[in-house]
Design brief:
The structure holds two protein chains of two kinds. By secondary structure, chain A is mainly α. Chain A is built from eleven helices and no strands. Chain A folds into two domains: about 80 residues, Rna Polymerase Sigma Factor, Chain: A (Orthogonal Bundle), CATH 1.10.1740.10; about 100 residues, Arc Repressor Mutant, subunit A (Orthogonal Bundle), CATH 1.10.10. Chain B has one domain. The longest helix of chain B has 21 residues. The chains are: A mainly alpha, B mainly alpha. At the A-B interface, α1, α2, α3, α7 and α8 of A face α2, α4 and α5 of B.
């Protein structure tokens, strides 16, 4: 029998399931683990529902539980943060690389972005160190504000910003490397001279 | 922040590079936003870069989304309700 509490919870959670699942998938890298993570998150959220204050942000609240559940479950795997070189983390990385290589300047640089496959973008995201990946997903994919993200990941605003900006720059670098590796940078994308 | 920056009357290309991400996330204060927009109004190379970055953000959002079919969502929600206690 479905209780009123269950019905209320189902109504609250339903609009957020695709987002939760999507984030879980990018964080765990595979479907089974993502489903487990979402399932655990929902159980915890349901049990803690009384603590959720109505009129506050349910979406941010439930994402906070997802992130905590992820960190607890993957504590071992994420204990040692991946080493990242910040040497060439320049702004406008992709734009500048395209500017250096595109011979036919009439080709809009945005075309490079349009031509990326979904799988390239997903793989690039999956390869980001998890702290960066999480913040980029929460901001750029899920549309949370800096303050909401600070609350979700329990970190100061400055940390959110620096991870987000570094994450995006790394993402551009990864996408550029894929493009070269997969031969997207050929023909009209030939080096100048 | 240095007093030089505080009293800045206009942004140069380096400022654009420094504030581009905050601009695109719409978190710049009014004054910086105004200076930012004044600069890209007349600086075509910066304007083009900003447009590219804007599109980059959109592309990430569009291409990183997993399109979960409605049936899957409904199924999962049903399973969940059955398992909740």
């Amino acid at each position: 029998m479905v209780t009123d509490k269950q019905k209320e919870f189902a109504k609250l959670i339903e609009p957020h399931l695709p987002s939760l699942y999507n984030t879980a998938l990018r964080m765990t890298h595979n479907q089974n683990d993502a489903e487990d993570l979402v399932q655990d998150t929902l159980f915890k959220a349901y049990r803690a529902l009384d603590q959720f204050q109505k009129d506050t942000n349910f979406r941010a609240w439930v994402f906070r539980i997802l992130v905590n559940t992820f960190i607890t479950a993957y504590r071992k795997a994420i204990r040692q943060p991946q080493k990242v070189s910040y040497d060439d983390m320049e702004e406008f990385f992709l734009y500048k690389r395209l500017d250096e290589t595109v011979t036919i300047q009439e080709v809009p640089k945005e075309e490079f972005l349009e031509n990326l496959f979904d799988d390239d973008v997903k793989e690039a995201l999956d390869n980001l160190p998890y702290q960066f990946r999480l913040v980029v997903l929460l901001c750029d994919v899920e549309g949370f504000s800096y303050n909401e993200i600070a609350n979700i990941i329990d970190a100061p605003l400055g940390t959110v910003m620096s991870r987000l900006y570094r994450g995006r720059k790394l993402l551009q670098r990864y996408l550029w490397n894929y493009a070269k590796k997969r031969g997207y940078i050929t023909d009209e994308f030939l080096p100048k001279k | 922040m240095s007093s030089y920056q505080k009293n800045k009357q206009e942004f140069d290309c380096a400022d654009i590079e420094e504030y581009v991400q905050q601009y695109l996330d719409n978190v710049l204060d009014e004054e910086k936003k105004r200076l930012f927009e004044e600069h890209i109004e007349y600086c075509l190379p910066c304007d083009k870069k900003i447009e590219f970055e804007r599109r980059f953000k959109e592309i990430i959002r569009l291409k990183a989304k997993e399109n979960l079919p409605h049936e899957t969502i409904d199924k999962k929600l049903k399973e969940l309700l059955e398992n909740l206690s």
